[in-house]
């Protein structure tokens, strides 16, 4: 089915004897906001690196935007965007320089970059800050800009690795408005988060425990199944048996 933009079947990654990602299977549909949850060490980053075309699985199958994770890593990279709270923008470049840099990396023409850059700066309300160093922006603004840059080239899928870490709840809510807007244009959003209020905003959620998919459903169905009032409670019930912990 071509509305499935990510398909994983029994995807597995071993490091020696250790199975970091253990036969995980799931599909993600076009335009879906798919939450990828799990305690520290559950295997989220390892799985996400494979889906971004940065690492090979040990076994199993997966396609991303129709491309095979073993054989078509370069095509995957051209069709996705990526943002992480840990690194995203160049602090010592201005807002516009960052936009130009990433537009160039993604292969857009100079004219196209200029057109999209003006539109983006206006949309974000950053006209006053356009020529200022990103370093001087508040964290919430940096993250909104980083997200906008990650989807600047209209990728099919954007991977967000804990995109709102350290940001206050109001800014987080605004960030999620941007995520909804992107999803409404057909961009698929694959997001990891430790914030359970954000889990509630996802269309469907996977909870990983010790390398395995322990649950996969809508937040509403998960809450009903685990007789929980919140995703926090669902997560606690699923993750409390985890053997792995923070490294
Ligand atoms: N290159 C590696 N070699 C050996 N073990 C690794 C390697 N990369 C990750 N691991 C292990 O695989 C497990 C899963 O790690 P991973 O980073 O994918 O978890 P995570 O769910 O992303 O956790 P976090 O939320 O802390 O980022 C951890 O126990 C980690 O130590």
TrEMBL record:
InterPro entries: AAA+_ATPase, ABC_transporter-like_ATP-bd, P-loop_NTPase
Domain of life: Bacteria
Entry keyword set: ATP-binding, Nucleotide-binding
GO molecular function terms attached to this record: ATP binding
Pfam families: ABC_tran
SUPFAM superfamilies linked to this entry: P-loop containing nucleoside triphosphate hydrolases
Coiled coil: none
Annotated ABC transporter domain residues: 6-235
Name of the protein in question: ABC transporter ATP-binding protein
Naturally occurring in which organism (per UniProt): Chitinophaga qingshengii
């Amino acid at each position: 089915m071509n509305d499935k933009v990510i398909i994983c079947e029994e995807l597995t990654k071993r490091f020696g004897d250790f199975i970091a990602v253990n036969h995980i299977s799931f599909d993600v549909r076009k335009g879906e906001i798919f939450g990828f949850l799990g305690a520290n060490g559950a295997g989220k980053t390892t799985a996400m690196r494979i889906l971004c075309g940065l690492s090979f699985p040990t076994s199993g199958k997966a396609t991303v935007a129709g491309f095979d994770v073993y054989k078509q890593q370069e095509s995957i990279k051209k069709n996705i965007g990526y943002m992480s709270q840990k690194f995203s923008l160049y602090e010592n470049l201005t807002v516009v320089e960052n936009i130009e840099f990433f537009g160039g990396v993604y292969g857009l023409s100079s004219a196209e970059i200029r057109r999209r850059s003006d539109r983006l700066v206006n949309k974000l309300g950053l006209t006053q800050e356009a020529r200022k160093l990103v370093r001087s922006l508040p964290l919430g603004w940096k993250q909104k800009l980083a997200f906008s840059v990650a989807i600047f080239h209209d990728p099919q899928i954007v991977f967000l690795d804990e995109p709102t870490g350290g940001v206050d709840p109001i800014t987080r809510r605004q960030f999620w408005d941007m995520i909804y807007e992107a999803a409404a244009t057909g961009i698929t959003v694959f997001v990891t988060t430790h914030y359970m209020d954000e889990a509630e905003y996802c269309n469907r959620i996977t909870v990983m425990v010790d390398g395995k998919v322990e649950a996969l459903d809508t937040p509403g169905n998960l809450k009903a199944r685990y007789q929980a009032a919140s995703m926090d409670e669902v997560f606690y019930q699923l993750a409390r048996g985890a053997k792995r912990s923070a490294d």
